[in-house]
């Protein structure tokens, strides 16, 4: 029997649509032996034009769509709105029984009760043990530290933002070609100086982002494939292999590198 995937997304931009398209294409091809049993969004129709385009895509795929406005709850309930919002969300999702839930551009911190109810994973733009924060904050920290390596990981979702145990990851080097000449350009300049003068237009910043971004969708696809094939799963809040033995984290670097090498050819 195919795995059932629950999809959580605010649907706020083109990237949210592109990711759903990519996953749905893999499902149709049989690369991932699973089905998306629902899409949940914390926005409702009419709140944002980009999100409405996302909803249109979901309906086109005939995936059940559940919408609940977090903005509306915040305005009407005031303090404590988040707990009330999630209780209502879980009530609306009661008839669904996902084996795995993916946060795909879901712009809310998930509370403890929802984390306990569903096995949830999320993407973070750094390798296990790497910098925390947004992808921009991660890149600036890597540059500040003069890091030799970085990566992308999928991790278990916990109420503590970006601190859940890693599930899968891939890494890539930040040294040798094509990175070295851009590191050389940084010599003699502080990161704060680069931020103030170039901001995100800095060549090294953009190159790190390019290589990280190229791995995000492939890692999500490879992770879902690994779950659907039983190579990795979540049991009792921990990551286990096909035999039920606990594993620290599942390294997919080789598999991801094969997929992105051609796209990143210099």
Describe the model.
This protein has an 8-stranded mixed sheet. The protein has a two-stranded antiparallel ribbon with strand order 8-9. With 266 residues, it is α/β, with parallel strands linked by helices. It is globular. Strand 8 (232-235) and strand 9 form a beta hairpin. It has 10 helices and 10 strands. It is 42% helix and 20% strand. It has helices at residues 14-29, 49-60, 70-77, 81-92, 112-117, 135-145, 180-186, 191-197, 203-228, 253-260; strands at residues 3-8, 34-41, 65-67, 100-103, 120-124, 149-156, 166-173, 232-235, 238-241, 250-251. It folds into 2 domains: 1-118, Formyl transferase, N-terminal domain (Rossmann fold, 3-Layer(aba) Sandwich), CATH 3.40.50; 124-266, no CATH class.
Q: How does the SSE layout of this entry go?
A:
Elements: E1 3-8, H1 14-29, E2 34-41, H2 49-60, E3 65-67, H3 70-77, H4 81-92, E4 100-103, H5 112-117, E5 120-124, H6 135-145, E6 149-156, E7 166-173, H7 180-186, H8 191-197, H9 203-228, E8 232-235, E9 238-241, E10 250-251, H10 253-260
Summarize the structure.
This protein folds into two domains: 1-118, Rossmann fold, CATH 3.40.50; 124-266, no CATH class. Helices cover 42% and strands 20% of the residues. The protein contains ten helices and ten strands.
